[in-house]
Amino acid sequence: MATIVAQPPAAPGLSAAEAAARLGGRPRRSRPVTSRSYASIVRANVLTPFNLILTAFGALTLTFGDWRDALFLLVVVVNSLIGIGQEVRAKRTLDRLALLVAPTATVVRDGQPASVVPDDLVVDDLVELGAGDQLVADGRVHRSDGLRLDESILTGESRPVRREPGEEVRSGAFVVEGAGTMVVTAVGDERYAERLLGQARSFRHPRSPLERAVNRLLVALVGAVVVLGGLLGFALQHRDAGTRDAVATATAGVVSLIPEGLVLLMGLTFAVGALRMARRGVLAQQLNAIESLAAADVICLDKTGTLTENALGVHALVPAPGVSEAELRALVAALAGATTARNLTVDALARDLPGGPPDPTAAQLVPFASRRRFSAVRTGGEVLVLGAPERFSLGPLATLADEHARAGRRVVALGRAAEPPADPDDLPTAAGVVGLVVLSERLRPDTRETVAFLRREGVELKVLNGYAPATVAAIAADAGIDVRGECDGDGLPNEPDALRAAMREITVVGRISPDGKRRVVEALRDDGRHVAMVGDGVNDVPALKAARLAIAQGTGAQMARGVADLVLVQGNFSAVPALVHEGRQMLRNLQRVARLYVTKSAFAAFLILLIGTTSTAYPLLPRHFTIAATLTVGIPTFFLALAPSSGPWASEGFVRAVARFAVPAGITVGVGVLAAYLFALHNLDLTVQSRTAATTVLVILGLYLVLVLEASGRRRGLAVVALCGALGGLYALALALPAAREFFELSTPTAAILGGAAGGAAVAICALALSGFTPGAGGSAR
């Protein structure tokens, strides 16, 4: 016979007046960080390696050269201010949204429970704890009804730890199962895990595939800057170039190698994506989460609260032979009233089958847990057990249980025994069944549309749930999910290779434990899938942690929200399609605009190797690069990175795809620019004017590449043509205005200059077209 631990009498807690007095004497803390700090945003947008290089060359130019050649510094400042402004705007929106899903505590004041924010807790407060709650203060357990805590964030130990009255517990832990109360011993800055939880959330996931790819690209470009810059410097020293000429040439060569706006543009895009998600009621706790969602090719989800509404109702009571329906109803009501560890099932029973006054001798013996699939209470001198039908010998009720399960309803069995279980994980001996309780739930109104969209986008859905496999499969099929195979969680293979093979075929797994969900997610992840996990309960947390992207519902457990990358604040799964569309649009746009930045770098490298190492004057001054890059890269990418788009996308092979476009395009542009420059310099005997011809060719070819990458589709194509026409008009205006010509050191366009520029541009455009670089192609097949 199991020993029942005697619980201490209920602590009265503090009165509201006592709590207010203690709170008033305590200094108010600053609001906890829910997103990047302002200082972090400024550092990320200003203190980059490329900005430091540009600033150094800007200082050299201002000291030894012409100040107009330092105009690129203004571009750096403007880009940084735009990036900072957008991220700050996103941060403020995210911080407001985060308050809706921030952890709270249920505290007993004047003998009544009340929900308060962590900053309003004081020492000696009595806090109620339930499954899924996060501990937001340090304390001492006062009452324990099978209380088990996940303290992995504090100790690294993944197995839940049982806590008994008198034991110390610390903030940052989560209640995995059971219920209880604790008396607060430390709050605010005195908590053990004051900084630990925020760090754990911030660094739960590594960088996204796109971020890693861009970082590899930037490392390669930094290496190119060092090598080619050193080569250019050696060539200038070898030919004894004057200080002014050397500074202008070195600045023009090195500055043009740097994709100064690419990093800022990616951060800006992520921030705008997070802002758009926030407007749809989705909190991004990781800025790169929208990209991860776009890359997901399989989404695992728990049925309850995602496909179905987050509520249950009693559909029918099925008494066993010899038991009346009234007797079964009374027993179910007694169990619901005596259960202290609540969940959806118990709440539905207590609501739909209310009993009489509570039994003062009632006690919870075993709280419900997914791994054991039953709970037990003592009431009325007997032990009542509620659990999965598979845990009982149903006899003649087995057929009815199976029929209801295949109809998509949840079935639980009620049994009773004389003695409590000898082991909390074992059913009481001779727990005879007294009846079945049939519960039902409804699909969310927009579930079928959401599932249909995801299937059209090539995203596979797998349902992992604790209900019977037949029940889960029926609801999944009703939602439109392709149910190719169903399986019981206990029947999943233990061997990793076999589990991976099984999950390629199975789409529904029922009666699965939290650890089983984790194993399934890990198997899919190890099989090369980009896995997103959607969950709302404590039993989903191991799988959420294992997934590449964790999505929690704002109406779910605090523990699930705490480890999630995305939080659906209103618990609305129908928000996911819009996020997938947004993320894939963002990926397409970033891949396209990155090609423009790297094409500029490839072009600059070509010039350094062919002209920078010779005695021929460099074809472009820094100010020429500034006006050309602003018109053909900076302004277009700012608009196009955030514009609607369509077409192929991919998160893998990013660097190769960019290089296949940028290297040949950059070299071809370089050939066109050099052809016009050298022809004007040597055949037309033009000196200063030859640089105007080179700049003109560079602008024409740059705008042509914008058309190649972006002019896809009728409406978008017309918009991009209009944009390029406007930017070309700005350059023509700069050539026409004497003040602009003088500032940028451009010459008045003559027939010779325009003819040379037209010839060089025509040669390059023909070469680009023959290579497949045509407007509307998007640069995808290179």
Structural topology:
Blueprint: H1 16-24, H2 38-46, H3 49-64, H4 72-98, E1 105-109, E2 112-116, E3 126-129, E4 138-150, H5 152-155, E5 161-162, E6 168-169, E7 174-186, H6 196-202, H7 209-238, H8 243-257, H9 262-279, E8 282-284, H10 289-295, E9 298-301, E10 313-319, H11 325-338, H12 344-352, E11 363-366, E12 374-379, E13 382-387, H13 398-406, E14 410-417, E15 432-440, H14 447-456, E16 460-464, H15 469-479, E17 486-488, H16 496-503, E18 508-510, H17 514-526, E19 531-535, H18 541-546, E20 549-553, H19 558-563, E21 566-568, H20 576-612, H21 622-640, H22 654-683, H23 688-710, H24 714-736, H25 738-744, H26 751-770
Parallel strand pairs: 9-16, 9-19, 16-18, 17-18, 19-20, 20-21
Antiparallel strand pairs: 1-2, 1-3, 3-7, 4-5, 4-6, 4-7, 8-21, 10-15, 11-12, 12-13, 13-14, 14-15
